[in-house]
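Contributing new records

If you add data, match the layout below exactly. Sequence lines come first and carry their own label; structure lines follow with theirs. Keep one chain per record. Anything else will be rejected by the validation script.
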Amino acid sequence: MHLIEIKELRKAFGPIVAVDGISFTVDKGDVLGFLGPNGAGKSTTMKMLSGFLPPDGGTASVNGHDIITDSIAVRRSMGYLAENAPAYDEMSVLGMLKFVCEARGIKSSARRQAIDRVAVSCAITGVMHQLVGTLSKGYRRRLGLAQALVHDPDVLILDEPTDGLDPNQKYEVRKLIMGMASEKCIIISTHILEEVEAICNRIIIISDGRILVDETAESLMAKHGGTLDQTFRELTGSVSQVKGGAS
């Protein structure tokens, strides 16, 4: 069974077709780089998978659960870090993680163990009693990652997971993702193509709501004879300066 299975998924906003009948699967052990220019349909696809948006057509399942008819089970199976992950400024970091655990039904000693685990893995132990509203952008991003991981999900969807982090922090997050990769199914959308080359074993490039490419980074670059950045520009027809890759 595929941990993620998408068949002819479609979403339109009025006359604009954001996702135009895409199909793909993702399995345990996959770290999929989901790339595309602005407006390509990446975030819309991830929001449909995670239950934030209903599709207009097609089907999708996560860990065997249909995103429409079994959406609660989908949410239990998934950790989702949105590009602009919500956080409660008036809570402490510890308080917010306790709140997330409560919402996910993690109680008592299991809650303490879960929070301790993500505090260490996401390097936020030093700010656990600090108010979320006082955190730097980098710490807020790490808190967002911690809340996505606290219930140890089988499926992770990470939208710009290293946004706002310094080079050392980016390295630590990449190492964390690589350490989890064999036991989970992970989709990453990022601007940083060197990140994709470092941690992803597969790439999907989407443009105008349709999939252009679904293959490994190595085979993609060998086929097009250039860097991933150059290949991305060639395939998507981008003429603007792209900071390290796709947006």
